Amino acid sequence: MPEEKEKIFDVAVVGGGPSGMIAAARAGELGARAALLEKNNTLGRKLLLTGKGRSNLTKAEFSPKELVKKYGREGGFLLSPLSVFGVKETIDFFEKKGLKTKIERGKRVFPQSDKAGDVLDVLFDYLKKNQVKIMTNSEVKEIIRHKKSISKIVLKDDREILAKNYIICTGGKSFPGTGSTGDGYKWLKEMGHTIVKPRPALVPLKIKEDWPKKAQGLSLKNVELTIFQNGKKKDSCFGELLFTHFGLSGPVVLDLSGEIGELLERGEVKLSLDLKPALNFQVLDKRIQSDFFKYKNKFFKNCLSDLFPQKMIPVIIEMSGINPLKRVNKINRQERQKLVRLSKGMEMTVSSLLGFNLAIITLGGVSLKEIDSKTMKSKLVENLFFAGEIINLHGPTGGYNLQLCWSTGYLAGQTAAKSNTSK
Ligand SMILES: Cc1cc2nc3c(=O)[nH]c(=O)nc-3n(C[C@H](O)[C@H](O)[C@H](O)COP(=O)(O)OP(=O)(O)OC[C@H]3O[C@@H](n4cnc5c(N)ncnc54)[C@H](O)[C@@H]3O)c2cc1C
């Protein structure tokens, strides 16, 4: 029989990710007796993977109105949480607790140490300082509702946790090895909440054609990827792209993946990759002519290295249909223009999105209509709050998703601590 059968807390937070940690610590800071329940034996497993281990902890966009545009149609939901704990407050919070930050390209904010572990350490100290009871190895099995409120939480080992208020921060379903297995969706659905269908997002793509595999490992900066369906342009994104053994990854691909996923449900999706988006057709043609002049006595295969990365050259040669051993001065205008067109539009067909295992985030979750954005409180269950990825809101890559966790987590912890709802 476990030692602690029952515990009574003011606030019980389920899920020790970024949103749960900040929520529990903030509740503790305001004097609430708070508990943080995490099924893993450590906190913040996914947080340690963020930003490739460097943690892109926010985006240095200080205008909430501008920031929320990036969270899609329902981004306005975040205005209230941001007004309490916005980007400036987030950076100040970490800096005051000793974590020096730096702003990199694209206004992405990282710890100066480049270590996600240092972000986790700050949160851990914040929890400790505010006497939060950290309960790792505590997998929540069931949440029991009595009339209009939650009466208790039952753990897998049958321990029971009683609290006045409960905050669910179990995240989404992506990277399930970190503990985010979508458990919260089931409980919340049973309590009457609408769960918008969870879907993998910010996820790499499988491509039908073989040529991207030939360039695997190559990362291209400053390229433009455009999505087409039925010959119509749907969207495009400029930035960095990575070729992999299954197809494509990198920020531009991840950011377009949500939309590609939706379009795939309606039919075939084509992609066009512009390797030289800064140059229009004529300018690129001139540039290639001058390279051809410079290398006029060389073979075609040896004249492209000023324009393209080495790994891309065999692919371009094959797709151009020009004999690699042709002397450059023998290449005709038509062939050259085909090369220009190719550089500005390498075509691919999407075969599928990779699944939850490799998705950075999960689209979908608790319907925003059922959450009060001023408090992060459920509109259906009296003593229930939410924070983080479990809600039906997400942003692109670049620090937006962690900012959502900090803002909603801080606010949920604060209002749950102040709310006197009794069970
Ligand atoms: C590889 C990768 C890189 C990323 N990089 C960035 C980045 O640089 N910047 C950025 O902004 N975002 C990034 N993200 C997204 C970001 O990590 C998530 O949005 C964020 O972790 C969500 O936090 P959360 O607290 O809502 O949920 P999670 O971090 O998913 O935490 C949920 C926690 O709940 C626990 N849990 C689940 N079920 C139970 C249960 N039944 N009982 C008890 N505990 C339970 C889990 O074990 C987990 O610890 C990245 C994501 C991935 C996968």
Question: What's this entry about, in short?
Answer:
The chain is α+β, with helices and mostly antiparallel strands and 423 residues long. It has helices at 18-29, 50-53, 64-69, 79-84, 87-96, 116-129, 183-190, 211-214, 251-264, 281-294, 313-320, 333-343, 400-418; strands spanning 6-14, 34-37, 58-59, 101-104, 108-111, 133-135, 140-146, 149-155, 160-168, 195-201, 205-207, 219-229, 232-243, 247-249, 270-274, 346-353, 361-366, 371-372, 377-378, 384-386.
Describe the structure.
This protein has 423 residues and is α+β, with helices and mostly antiparallel strands. The chain folds into two domains: 6-199 and 362-418, FAD/NAD(P)-binding domain, CATH 3.50.50; 204-354, no CATH class. 31% of the residues lie in helices and 26% in strands. The chain has 13 helices and 20 strands. It has helices spanning 18-29, 50-53, 64-69, 79-84, 87-96, 116-129, 183-190, 211-214, 251-264, 281-294, 313-320, 333-343, 400-418, and strands spanning 6-14, 34-37, 58-59, 101-104, 108-111, 133-135, 140-146, 149-155, 160-168, 195-201, 205-207, 219-229, 232-243, 247-249, 270-274, 346-353, 361-366, 371-372, 377-378, 384-386. The strands form five sheets. Strands 1, 2, 6, 7, 8, 9 and 20 form a seven-stranded mixed sheet that branches. A six-stranded antiparallel barrel has the order 11-14-13-12-15-16. Helix 1 runs parallel beside helix 13 (400-418) and helix 10 (281-294) packs across helix 12 (333-343). The relative contact order is 0.19. The model has no long low-confidence stretch (mean pLDDT 95). The protein binds flavin-adenine dinucleotide (FAD).
